[in-house]
Structures are given as C-alpha cells and as structure tokens.
Amino acid sequence: EKKLLGVSAKDLTPSYDWFQTDGLITVVIYTKQKDMNAELVIVDCQDKRLRGEIIVNEHSYVLEVDLDHEVEDFFINIAEKIGKVEIILKKKDNVHWKMLGQPLESHNTFIKRKNRGLFYRKCKLVSKTEVTHDTKLFCFMLPKSTCFQVPAGQHVYLKQIIAGTEVVKPYTPLLPFLPLNFKEPSCHDSANIYLMIKIYSCGLFTQALDHLQIGDCISISNPEGNFKKSQVQALEDLFFLAAGTGFTPMVKLLNFALTEVSSLRTAKLIFFNKTEDDILWRNQLEQLALKDERFEVQFVLSEAAKDWMGKQGRISSSLLSGFVKRSRKDSKVLICICGPTPFTEQGVQYLKDLGYSQEEMHAFTA
Ligand code: FAD
Ligand code: NAD
Prior knowledge:
The protein has 366 residues and is mostly beta strands. The protein has three domains: 113 residues, Sandwich (Immunoglobulin-like), CATH 2.60.40.790; 102 residues, Elongation Factor Tu (Ef-tu), domain 3 (Beta Barrel), CATH 2.40.30.10; 135 residues, Rossmann fold (3-Layer(aba) Sandwich), CATH 3.40.50. A hairpin with a 2-residue loop joins strand 5 and strand 6.
C-alpha cells in the first residue's frame, strides 16, 4: 500500500454505516473530505435500488444496493466541514430491516472518476422555447427519485435510441435566463436541467431531440467535466471567448463569478457568431452589461450583413490583443474558450503567443 505523507491510500477511502428507527433508514457516508457540498453528491433511489455517488477530487465513491424493503422518499443531509453525508430513506412500511440490502456490482467501490461508467436516469421534457431561428432552450425535469446539481463548467450526456442504435452526445446545462441581480445568490432550481441546443438540419441527434414532445423522456447522465471552481477563486479578470453554442458553459460560470467571487473586477465576453440572428440571448447580455458595470460584451460576426456596425471577422490575434487586457499589471486572470474545435485551438494558440500561461486559460472540449 502506497504511503503519502504518512497517510495510506486506504485511509482516504470513504466508508459507510447505516442504522434505523421505526420509520427511517439512515445511511451515513464518511467521505474523509473536508469541503463536502451538494455538488459532490449524486443520489438515485428507485424501485428498491439505491445508488449514491460521492465525488472526492479525481475519484468517485459509490454505494449501490438492492434495498431490503421499499422506500417512499429520501433526503440528503451534508455536514460540509466534517465531510459526512447522510442519505435518509423513509420506509414505505414500518418494518424492521434485517440488512440494508444486497450489494450490487459497484457497491462500496472507490475508483478514478474517468473509469466510472456513465449512469443515466430518464428525465421528462417539460418545455421547449425558441432562442433563435435554430436554437431552443429545453427544460428537462429530473425524476423525484434523483438528486444532483450540475456544477458550473460541467456537461451531461444525453442518450437516445435512433434508428435502433444508441446515440450519446454531450450538452452543457445552464440557467433558464441570465440573472440580472447578482447581489443575492440565485436560489437553486435543482430539479430542472436547462439545455440550450442548436438544431442542425442534418444533425443526427438534434433532429431526434427536436421531435421530442412535451412529456416525452430522455436519458440524462451524471455531470462530468474538468473545470474546477478553484480556477475562479480570487480571480480579478475573467474573459470568455465563445463561438455559437460555445456560449453555454459561460452562463453558470458568469453567474458564479459575478455572485460569489468578491475579488472580481471585470468579466468580459467576446461572442463570435455568423450573423446577428444567430446571437444567443443578445438582449439579456446587453441588459446585464447595462446593469453590472463589471460586465462587458462584444459581438463579432463572420457573415455580417452590410448594415452591421460592430466588429467583423473570425478569431484573430489582433482582435484578442485588443480585448484580453489585464485590468492592472499582474492581475489574476482566467480566459475561457469554447466553440467549434478549430476556433478553440486557434484561440489557445493566439493566447499563448500573447504571453498568457496554460493556468490562465481554460478550453472547454469533449
Ligand atoms: P451531427 O449529426 O453530428 O452533425 C451536426 C451538423 O454539423 C451537421 O449539419 C453536420 O453536417 C455538421 N458536422 C458534423 N461534424 C462536423 C465536423 N467535424 N465539422 C464540420 N461540420 C460537421 N451543443 C449545443 O447545441 N448545446 C450545448 O450545450 C452543447 N454542449 C456541448 C458540450 C460538449 C462538452 C461538447 C463536446 C459538445 C457540446 N455540444 C453542444 C455539441 C453537441 O454535443 C453535438 O455535437 C451537436 O448537438 C450536434 O449533434 P448532432 O448529432 O445533431 O449533429
Ligand atoms: P457556428 O458554426 O454558428 O459558428 C460560430 C462562430 O464560430 C463563427 O461565426 C466563427 O466566428 C467561428 N468559427 C466557426 N468555424 C470556425 C473555424 N473553422 N475556425 C475559426 N472559427 C470558426 O457555431 P455552432 O454551430 O454554434 O457550433 C458551436 C460549436 O461549439 C460546436 O462545434 C459544439 O460542439 C461546440 N461546443 C462545445 C462545448 C464544449 O464544452 N466543448 C460546449 C458547447 C458547444
């Protein structure tokens, strides 16, 4: 067993215990992680099957059992400082449980996140609203038997059977709108997942999505992604280089930065689109820029009409050098880039050429 600073790997593995009263079963997970929070806990409990997953840095701990008896409902309690997570199950019948249940395949395992297969649950389409001529905002509701939150900068996978074949694609949950009042942390609407999706006329997955009716279900996975909120902590200048639907990861991130990062001085978005009609949430972005003096937005069009007065072209070194500027010498900066792969690759290269370090940029990719 490898020793790290006198702490063995085994000591870092979470463990669990359970106990019961007449009406409740309490499963306690000792995560051994100090900063536990709701974004690190994913619970599904349906048809006597309980699956609880705890994210511990690069690792994932899973509890998975076929419960001894049925449950009616469940709650989650997190003691953040001591890293204790309780899953409280409400018994359907007030009977004494002889055991928690039969362990399933992944029960009590602690492995690298990337080696943990995706877990899906069926979510219902609640609403679908137009954002632009080809982009829609989909709202999916998590079932009552599921509890998780999607952290800023992370995506989920959607799965559908199309013409007899299982197809999976990633999408980035965002907020239903850009909150204009950043003074209060926005209350979390965690039962709904909002996705802004461009429907391509020849797109395999998006065509099938567009044909879903309100009330239809689709499989949605646990959140994934390598963006860490710590990248935004103590930040002074935040820049977003977004192209098309590459705007989606910026929404929660911008909200988080403007609400919770007190050191933040500037947040600037440079948004690349083909035409004016393709700009997502233009009005909301302009409203936010008026309302919050830290925020600024600039639109750049690659196929502008003659009457467009704004900036034109694609991502370039000269455009970026004028836009990405520190608010003061040595300020702590992060530049987020997301869009079509060639856009992201070119952006990263230009930023390197301008002297920004790897730690000062984050590219959203698959
Ligand atoms: P496809 O059938 O794959 O093709 C789409 C269109 O693009 C077609 O018109 C096709 O002709 C063309 N095309 C396909 N491949 C290429 C290529 N390599 N070069 C040029 N053209 C090509 N999309 C969103 O709308 N919203 C999101 O929030 C979102 N989040 C994402 C998060 C991540 C991490 C990643 C990697 C992608 C994300 N995407 C998002 C893109 C999404 O996953 C799909 O790729 C997209 O919806 C297209 O799927 P499709 O099956 O409909 O299209
Ligand atoms: P689009 O075709 O409408 O293009 C928008 C802008 O991107 C263009 O105006 C142009 O400025 C720029 N652009 C396009 N192709 C370029 C190229 N080859 N080189 C340089 N710049 C280029 O964009 P769209 O259809 O909305 O596509 C958005 C892309 O973002 C998709 O490829 C999607 O997969 C990706 N995306 C990725 C993530 C992620 O997290 N990785 C999230 C959301 C979207």
